[in-house]
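Bumping my old thread because nobody answered last time. Still need a sequence for this structure:
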């Protein structure tokens, strides 16, 4: 049986560690390895050179699903004066993405941290420190983004990231509910959910009302470090049981995109992408061959 989800390669397979891969190579790697799509980040709205190169590379690659990770600010008191500019920037990125791929998706999050700093315990930062005015601003921003996605015919989801205003699935669900979102849906970054001690285990996360609309799942593994929050690792080498997470999602009928991330892994991006692809396909084949191997079958 073929893999049941669109496989998407995230841009961070190619950035950092003294590397500067051109867009044509990034997209060619994704296509050569059999990925279905590519998630871009970052592309600012007025960077014509990069947009032109990315668009040409995407159209030449044969990939059929484009995504864009958009990170916005403007929710904290210090950032609020730039709120309108941040909304305008996000809408302009959405416009350019729609021109690149009229069926693209937007992976959206709000960077603003009401705690004012990145605390060692994530439970002391992000949405946990949000006051009513922060939630109101978040809802207003999401309402604007949701309406713009609807106008452009694109889909979208929220993204949970430690330290951010949108840092947990619960924060996503509250923000979407208060915004009255019609297009935006919850997404899940497994890495950020696992290392945030305020996030329950995955079965309990997915049992929350609203999570049945999950429309994005990003995978990356990692180890905790004594002096730092974590160290990212390939999918088959870390604390996170990625296979069980996939088994749970598939048992619930999830057919949205699965996005391979590689933040800070470094090395040969072709090999990090190939290793992720092979692991994901192997897990699915394992469960198909013997459903009893899936703890959530």
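Sorry it took so long. Here it is:
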């Amino acid at each position: 049986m073929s893999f049941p989800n669109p496989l998407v390669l995230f841009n961070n397979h190619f950035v950092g560690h003294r590397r500067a891969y051109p867009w044509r190579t990034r997209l060619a790697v994704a296509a050569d390895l059999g990925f279905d799509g590519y998630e871009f980040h970052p592309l600012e709205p007025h960077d014509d050179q990069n947009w032109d190169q990315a668009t040409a590379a995407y159209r030449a690659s044969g990939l059929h699903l484009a995504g864009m990770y958009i990170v916005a600010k403007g929710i904290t008191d210090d950032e609020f004066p730039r709120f309108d500019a941040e909304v305008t920037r996000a809408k302009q990125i959405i416009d350019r993405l729609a021109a690149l791929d009229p069926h693209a998706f937007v992976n959206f999050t709000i960077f603003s941290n009401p705690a004012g700093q990145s605390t060692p315990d994530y439970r002391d930062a992000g949405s946990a420190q949000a006051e009513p005015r922060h939630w109101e601003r978040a809802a207003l921003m999401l309402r604007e983004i949701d309406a713009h996605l609807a106008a452009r015919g694109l889909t979208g989801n929220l993204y949970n990231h430690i330290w951010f205003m949108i840092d947990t699935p619960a924060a996503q669900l509250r923000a979407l509910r208060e915004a009255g979102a019609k297009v935006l849906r919850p997404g899940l970054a497994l890495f950020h959910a696992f290392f945030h001690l305020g996030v329950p285990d995955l079965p309990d996360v997915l049992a929350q009302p609203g999570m049945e609309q999950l429309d994005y799942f990003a995978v990356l593994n990692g180890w905790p470090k004594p002096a730092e929050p974590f160290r990212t690792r390939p999918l088959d080498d870390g604390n996170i049981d990625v296979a069980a997470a996939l088994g749970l999602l598939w048992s619930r009928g999830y057919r949205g995109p699965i996005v391979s991330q590689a933040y800070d892994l470094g090395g040969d991006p072709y090999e990090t992408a190939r290793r992720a692809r092979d692991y994901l396909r192997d897990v699915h084949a394992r469960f198909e061959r013997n459903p009893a191997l899936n703890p959530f079958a």
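DSSP finds nine helices and 13 strands in the chain. Let me know if any region looks off to you.
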